[in-house]
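Need tokens for this chain, all 616 residues.
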Amino acid sequence: MQSSSSPRRRGLARNTAFALRLLMRQDRAYPLYASLLVALQLVQPLLGSLIPAVAVALLTRGASYGLYALALTLSVLGYALCAAGIRTLDTRLNLCFSRSTLMEFNRLFFRKSITMDYCNFERADVQALQTVARRSINNGQAGVRGLVSRAHVWLYSLLGLLLYGGVAASLDLRILLVLAGMAASSMALSALRRRYLRTHDKTWRGWWNKFEYLAYTATDSFQAAKDARLYRIEGWFGESMRRTAKLILGQEARSQALAFLGNLSDDVFLLLRDLIAYAVLLHACCAGEIDAAGFTLMLGMIASFSSWLTGFVEADNILREASRQAEHYRDYLDYPDVIRHGEGADTASLSCPLSLELRDVSFTHPGSDTPALSHVNLTVRPGEHIALVGVNGAGKTTLVKLLCKLYPVTEGEILVSGVPLREFSFEDWRRVVAPLFQEVEAQPFTIAENIAASEAYDEMRVWDCLRRAGLDDFVRALPMGLQTPLVEHYFDPNSIVLSGGQMQRLLFARTLYHGGDLLLLDEPTAALDPLAEANLYRQYAQAARGKTCFFISHRLASTRFCDRILFMEHGWIVEQGTHEELMALGGRYAEMFAVQSQYYQENEKGGSADEGAFQI
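Here are the structure tokens for all 616 residues:
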């Protein structure tokens, strides 16, 4: 299988431009609001420094009370209006950020998750990447959300730094040098912290994934809820969560230690700034170069410059950390597909029923040294029904996933009516193949929507598929019928939970609804008892008439009505033939059949162990 390329560093500018481009899809007025906000944020500190200076000037220069009151009122009113404007624009931008998070960042994340090649999706490293990519979306100062919410902060901090830095430099260059040293030290220590986080990112990511998995399984998983209570796993899970949390906190402590050094460095440089600023201003005031009002104004401007510098360094650090986390999001979105998508061979030109040929097909999972399938050669005639049997891990499901194009072959080639399977796009091929897997799961929508996999559906066709799946009487008896919601009660209090057998019949109805010329049934009766399984297989066989079909099971209820049986073991086809031929061979199939046949007897009919088992 093709391996993914190594993640690439895109840089702060490119990641910020990417995030802002997505944001502006939802709000094209963002540049206007951001520009107004930046302008007001530049003016506000100036007004804040001007108000006390005006007050001191009017008091020390003998101005009339009326003039004093008017000037001070105008200054305070201007400051208040500026603050109100900032608050209004900030609220407006936060709404813009929330909209872009919900409508763009999450939309792209969902689209990638739902369309990513399955062979990639089930990889452990991709699942870990998915976790940190999701975290990159919704945290206010992290990842892509942090990039859009802090970009304007970085901009106005830079502009304010340049504006107020000129004032500080005109007073005494030493002040500017001290503050420049402060900025350089803070940014260097922040870069060291980011490098430390990047170096240990994969380790930390694995710990977080484990912690979140344990938390989810213990609190939200219906499947684990019974075991959690019956087997008292709270101590086991709790101890595992505690150990994982200690690892996370230890890593966080080392990260925060680097942040503390940066803050300590800032404090030292601010002390030097204040000492120099006060010394210079007091000397100028005593020498008569400035009066008390000038002293107050210049001191305020220097303090404002320090705030701008601190704000810029903080904004720059946040942006760079957000960019580092946004890399996870973009790496996830850009994770390369290995299955063909888009244009491909025309599936409409295939002759039906389909024929299949597997030429020396092998498949090995990424990171494994043992092939799941090894040099499989097989020819399937048009319309032939094949039973794939064998113990768990024999390679049956892997073969089905290859035929579904969920996996690409590692070696060899699969031909469909003479056309290489790789030539078809996945989008076109999924209209040809009709799979039903053992892991059945409904979605939290209505019965009809689950069958049609859409809000729009043909009601008569849905009822016909339910009838063919043997579930129509059950659905008709429900108060809401086809509109009955499924699965999760916290979505809808009227929802129901189907039994395992009902769920498998429902998903079989969905398979029938979507049609397809290649029917692939992988352990579709695992939740049924042997006799109910045999009855349902009878319905499967009727639905499969005129289609090429694979019935996959490690139980043998499907074998008697199939044209050919393939017995698989360790990724090989070790036996093939009809039921009678394999029984006469006396090999692995005959051995398994002898063990299982007793469970399929219909005792009330008095059938023999072998023959009564599969009279379908």
